[in-house]
Design goal:
alpha+beta, Alpha-Beta Plaits, single chain, 5-stranded antiparallel beta sheet
Length: about 180
């Protein structure tokens, strides 16, 4: 996933960019993330790539083992064979589903978040009071998005691979909206 990221010095410029994107028709059909500075004690933290891989691997591993184990148990109950072979197969088949499901989960969650250097840079900009707008669009729409962000007063534009996801402590609200 590649996003066009605009950095704005003032919150008003970011709001103007948001309005311009909505007028151009990009606000409702694309992944637009607005990360605005807030007055909280700590600046917003962005999720790094790979932070959610373990959780996704466990979840998909459980699903993979269930998807493989349930049909194989039904088949083992119906198919006539020695009980020792049935126990051996029932005890080992689910592991293949768990391993494959864990691999799928880890690979799919590996694209969520930003690289460490980009996340650290954007967190420092947010701590300094800058606003960020990240727009995830197809390659053919990127020139229009870049023009709208520049017209609104973006200081810098960059194509970044990854997704902008705020890492929030439980029970807190941040000034970020994703549509």
């Amino acid at each position: 996933m590649t996003a066009v990221v605009g950095i704005f010095e003032h919150r008003t410029a970011a709001v103007a960019a948001e309005q311009l994107l909505e007028e151009a028709g990009f606000g409702d059909r694309t992944g637009v993330t607005y990360v605005l500075p807030d007055d909280g004690p700590a600046p917003p933290r962005l999720k790094r790539r790979g932070e959610s891989m373990l959780r996704a691997a466990i979840k998909w591993g459980i699903w993979g083992s269930l998807i493989i184990e349930v049909p194989s148990l039904i088949a083992l109950l119906v198919y006539p064979m020695d009980i020792n072979i049935k126990i051996l197969l029932a005890a080992t088949v689910w592991k293949f589903g768990a391993a494959f499901g864990s691999w799928i989960g880890a690979m799919s969650a590996g694209e969520e978040g930003l690289d460490d250097e980009h996340a650290a840079e954007y967190e420092a900009l947010l701590a300094a009071g800058y606003a960020l707008i990240a727009v995830d669009v197809r390659a053919r729409h990127r020139p229009g998005i870049r023009g709208a962000l520049l017209e609104s007063g973006a200081l810098s534009l960059r194509d970044v691979r990854g997704s902008f996801v705020l890492k929030q402590p439980p029970g807190t609200k941040r000034a970020a909206v994703s549509s």
